[in-house]
Write a structure and sequence with these properties.
Elements lengths: L3 H11 L3 H21 L3 H10 L13 H9 L4 H9 L2 H4 L6 H21 L10 H9 L9 H11 L3 H14 L1 H4 L3 H4 L3
The structure holds fe (ii) ion (2 copies).
Length: 190
């Protein structure tokens, strides 16, 4: 099975935009948090988070199908491929079915909102609370690219209270706070 270094090399080959790379690191961190919480294989789940948007920059029109082909060529596990397919069921026809599928779907859009909310705060990810994320979620003009319907569907899929899910994603993302540039010490630098 390819490891995280292989996955990072693949990501760097396909994705040049810093923003998209960070999005993939953020989703990876959130999915890894859930893997630990649920006793799943963190390395496998992490690969799905890290690579789910592999082709978004180069082939947005057929996303995620080109990425899936690259994962198949690379010998990635079937459950990773299924999760990547099911994070866009409207394009692939593959619905989220497994725990990993549901977690990936549920972490994808909300992580973008949390990232944007962190950038507005002096202490970033250090002390952000679900309550302020929910407030931003309700403000449709804030981070307008974050699809609120997908956020709602993800919460429904994961079957947790909205605040609990947001808290989990925050805790996961906090572990990647440095690479995401959303710690207080990063934000207060400039
Ligand atoms: Fe995607
Ligand atoms: Fe994504």
């Amino acid at each position: 099975m390819p490891d995280r270094n292989d996955a990072l090399a693949l990501l760097h080959e396909w994705v040049e935009t810093e923003g998209l790379r960070k999005h993939m690191y953020a989703v990876e961190a959130a999915v890894r948090f859930y893997a630990r919480k649920m006793g799943a294989d963190e390395e496998v789940w992490g690969l799905a988070g890290l690579l789910h948007d592999l082709d978004w920059e180069k082939h947005p029109d057929v996303h995620p199908m080109e990425g899936v082909e690259a994962l198949k060529r690379g010998g990635y596990p079937e459950e990773v491929i299924h999760a990547v397919l099911s994070h866009r069921p409207e394009y692939t026809g593959v619905e989220p079915e497994t725990d990993l599928d549901r977690v990936l779907y549920a972490c994808d859009e909300i992580s973008g909102l949390i990232h944007a909310a962190c950038l507005m705060r002096p202490n970033g990810i250090d002390d952000i609370k679900p309550k302020s994320v929910v407030k931003k979620l309700k403000d449709k003009a804030f981070a307008a690219g974050v699809d609120r319907e997908q956020v709602a569907r993800g919460i429904e899929l994961i079957g947790l209270d909205r605040s609990e899910h947001i808290q989990n994603v925050i805790e996961g993302m906090r572990e990647a706070g440095e690479v995401l540039g959303i710690r207080g010490e990063d934000l207060q630098k400039d």
